[in-house]
Design a protein that fits this description.
19 helices; 519 residues; flat; 15-stranded mixed sheet
Length: 519
Amino acid sequence: MLKRKAEPSQRLTKRRRGGVPTFGAETEDDRVNFASSLSTASAFSTRSVLSTGPIPNLSVLCARSFVANLRALHESRNDWEITLKWLKLMPDNLVPKLFAMLRSTCPQILTNAMITSYFLRGPSIVLTSDVLAVNKITISAVAGAGNSLHELHLIGFVKFADSVFATVLSSMPSLRVLVLRGCAKVGSATVEAAARSCPLLSTANFNYTAVPPVALVPLLKTCSDLKVLKLAGIPNWTDATFAKLSSAVFQDESFILRNIQTLKLRQLGLSESSINSFLARCPNLTRMDLSFTQVHRPPPVVLTGARIEKLSLTSTAISSVDLVALIPSLPHIKSLALGAIGGGQGSSVAIGNTSAMTMTDQTLESLADVLKDFGQLEKISLVGNTKLGATSRRSGALKYFIQYVGRKCKYLNLSGVHYLQSLHLSGLLPQEAENQTPRLEQLILNNTGVDDDAAPYLACCSNLVVLELAGTKMSSTGLFSVIDTCPKLQTLNLTSCRSVSVTDRRRFFEAWKHNSEET
């Protein structure tokens, strides 16, 4: 009997683990993890490690202590009343940081009244749908922040009407960052309100909303400081609807979006010609996401001297010849996503279409020959390129790529490369000429052919923080030796690792500690 796949929201919830986040910790706005969709249940094991960075300042230490003891304070009526009085006196600039820590660690204590009374102030407000206390009243109360608000993040509110968000934005003239990702009913009214009331906007994230192309016309004309525009996964973007935007602004040859540096068009149903006409008006792009679109050839804007630092072409139908020709024009690239190349046609389902993949070992070797000299490259994804390693399973292209490119990056994703074997990872070993350990901090090898023979190669990655091995043949014995030599390792993904006890998969660091004490 087939196992029922976990819903995406369930998988994400299961991945949110760990202690109190530090101030300034990285947040994920719209990252998609393809590897997680290949498993039926997530089994992440986490631990906290001692920080080797600078000593936190007093406000950070106080906030951590407050959050750690909040449950105890909440249980005592007198203590809780005193606590609320002190919250009222907290400086505005500290409120967003403390609120973020509370959302992460004890969201069940937060109520609508508490949020609206104490946390809807300061330069930044972040409300997400996973805090159950947040409702329409909470969002409407955000309008009271007025001139002092510079950043507004409202994420995942699929049920609230467009008018709710439009009303909030009508009183925020100082707003610079607007993130409405996953608010499925956000549409024309909200965008028009932003264009009318928020002329200083530099970031607008409308990913997975219902914003039609023509609604962007006043925003693009009014918000001249706009640097980041994200439009991923909006269902009503077609060539027909895009034509209304094009006729309103792009027919004027002098209309150029010179300040836009980041453009996300992921999963839009636009043809290649429509996408290229949009890109042509953005000559200064540095970050571009065209994943799961109908792009077949390298965008002309990339080939004409744009200083691209991040490029995502996952699940597009760009040919190997064009891909190899494109890479030399990206000398400043820092992040490159080339997952499931050949599985395009604008569908996210295509990443599972094995027969459609076109990246071969020969292509990978050619890419490695270029990328090995790119000193700024930090992140690369080859997820889902299922034909890699098919013609040279013992070493070949995969080992070559790992040796000369992968080990120099901080992030490497080879999930779903089924022919990847342990021997390929020997490319991680220190080179005789350099004798330097790999830079890798995050290595993702889910659903590959890796087993315990990879342990000595993984063990040399002493900078690893995250290691994902879901669906591999790694056993407890091999993993113990990896943890022994990777003191920074905080997260292990052992989902469906059948050689690891089911009870240990979510508590593997505890099992390792117990094993160390016994031996």
